[in-house]
Amino acid sequence: MQQNSSPLLIIDSRYTLYDFRQKTTYKYNTVLQKSFQKLQQHFQILVVFCHSKPNTNQFFFNEFQKNFKGIDSKQLSIQELKETSYQNQEIIVVTHNYEQFTLNQKYQLYYFSSISQQLEKKKKLELKYYEKNPRPKFHISHIQQIMSFFSKSENPFCVGYYFYPKKFNELIQFEALITNSNFNYLPIDFRFQNKYREIDLLFHRFMDIYKRKEINMKQNEVELFQQNYDLFIKENKQIPVIDSIECLKLLIQRDELNIKLQSIFDSPEFQNVVKEHNIKIMTPQQIVFENNGQPQDLSNLKYPLIVKSKQGALTANCHIMAIVVNEKGLIGLFKQEQFKGQLILQQIINHNSIIYKIYQLGSKMIVQKRKSIPNIEVNNFKFEEGFYIFDTQKDLFKNVSECLIKVDEGIHECSNEVQLLKQIELLSSIIAREFKLHLFGFDIIGMNWKFYIIDINHFPGYKNVENARELFEQLFIQVSTKQMRI
After folding, report:
1. pTM, two decimal places
2. 44: domain CATH number?
3. Does the pLDDT value for residue 484 go beyond 70?
């Protein structure tokens, strides 16, 4: 029988394509479909369903066939898999349970690492795997990383990484975290100590373990994660980190962040540039308010206001905000569950529907001008309740327009944009230096000569940034080289 010239890629569907613990079907289907399309250009693909429970196996098999047409898939028992022969010169197997999911012929194993897997079972398997195959090239957490099969490098730079699924799928779409001739990428699970493999750099969004709404981890696992991370940092001070948790903590409390930013604006370094221009960047006026259910004096507040949580990250409601146009609206808003506890009451800055989104990726600054919320006036507010809740991660203009009687559809260009961009460039470089951050973003809004910075976010989405993968790789080398000089 003639052998097939394309490498055969056999994928164990368990954990690889869905979250087993939540028993949800294929998350991020669009990303997976794109990944399969790329893999089909290089491999003959077979997805195997071999769950021990027949009903579970049938359910996920049907879901896969419905969502991923054109990808060969079969229901096989472990024994049937072992007894099947394949006519391919090269065979690659992707599985987390490599002791059972085996063939009776030669193949290259890729160990699939997933935090959805049960901790004790995974720990035992993963440590044993590295005893047999210490090369991180064959340790992955997304099927598209199989492209590392074609990498021939013997001693590449090794990046250890941890990302929750949403952020990881953002990165994988522009082919970051895929091993190539210069870089290996190793998934790190801090639920147990990772002493079995040296890395050259740690790349992470570790603080996302506290986002209960998005991360399916038990409390004891979160605590274990944190303890092992702290121990790893303590024992490996020579390994650079992008970015350190200590630096990220400065971004969490919005009131403290505002004070730090104002000190930057007041510094001689920044003031010297302001003198050369006809514009000024500032922090918006705001107060911290404790909504504890007790009667409080609200008579001195000026409306309209933006109300948001004091904590700018790590909470389920950090992207949920409200527009409030009067005292009645504020009292009504305080009854809403997501607006309990410490809040920021911030002046609304009308800015003619223009927002400047700034992304810093290492030494590269990217500025994107986008449509923002329309101008808000108290006498143009639609709802009698006096408040309107919205999600900043959705279409802002469309979302906020819902609460206005009349909407100005136009965008009014900034006449001082050249001077503004010069100040933004200086501001971004100072933030990187003072906060010791490599990956962050912030927003600038305003008009005429007054502009305001709105929060700082660690590791924003870079999906619209050209050459993002190359910029990340440059950053890894720059940070590592800098660490070696210390």
Report:
1. 0.86
2. 3.40.50
3. no
